[in-house]
Design brief:
This protein is an alpha+beta fold. The protein has a domain at 58-128: Alpha-Beta Plaits (2-Layer Sandwich), CATH 3.30.70. It is built from three helices and four strands; from the N terminus they run αβαββαβ. The chain has helices at 2-19, 68-80, 105-115; strands spanning 58-65, 86-89, 95-102, 125-128. Strands 2-3-1-4 form a four-stranded antiparallel sheet. A hairpin with a 5-residue loop joins β2 (86-89) and β3 (95-102). The protein is rod-shaped. The chain starts with a helix and ends with a strand. This is SPOR domain-containing protein. One of its GO terms (molecular function) is peptidoglycan binding. It holds the Pfam family SPOR. It comes from Odoribacter laneus YIT 12061. Residues 52-128 form the SPOR domain.
């Protein structure tokens, strides 16, 4: 009987030892070696303009349309000419098409004075968006 109990205990110990999680070595990630290339960056020839994050409240208006399709056509035309044109919803179903926008009234007035001297742009006016 002692041998059976001893054999049972020995089997139980072996069973419990085999159930334990064996720690496996974690794979180590090798860092890639830094390559020192002798390539130098090209010199910057053009001075980058600072980005202006000002909110635009004053717009030079090129036209006002009842139908959005017509406003879209004029907006695309002005953008091809190099203007930062936008469509501004005005009143119910009216759409204003702007040449560009400005943060201050003074900037907008100066631009208007310059733009009004161009042929076909004499009727340009300033719209103050009260956002």
């Amino acid at each position: 009987m002692k041998t059976i109990v001893l054999f049972f205990l020995l089997s139980l110990c072996c069973f419990l030892n085999s159930c334990k999680e064996k720690k496996q070595a974690e794979p180590t990630l090798e860092k890639p070696a830094l390559v020192n290339d002798s390539i130098e960056p090209a010199p910057i020839t053009e001075i980058e303009k600072p980005v202006r994050n000002e909110v635009q409240h004053y717009f030079l208006i090129a036209g006002c349309f009842e139908y959005k399709e017509l406003a879209d056509k004029l907006c695309e035309k002005l953008q091809k000419e190099g203007f930062d044109s936008k469509i501004i919803p005005y009143y119910e179903n009216l759409y204003l098409v702007s040449y560009t926008g400005y943060a201050t009234s003074k900037e907008a007035q100066e631009a208007l004075n310059t733009l009004k001297h161009e042929s076909g742009k004499e009727n340009t006016w300033i719209y103050h968006a009260k956002n």
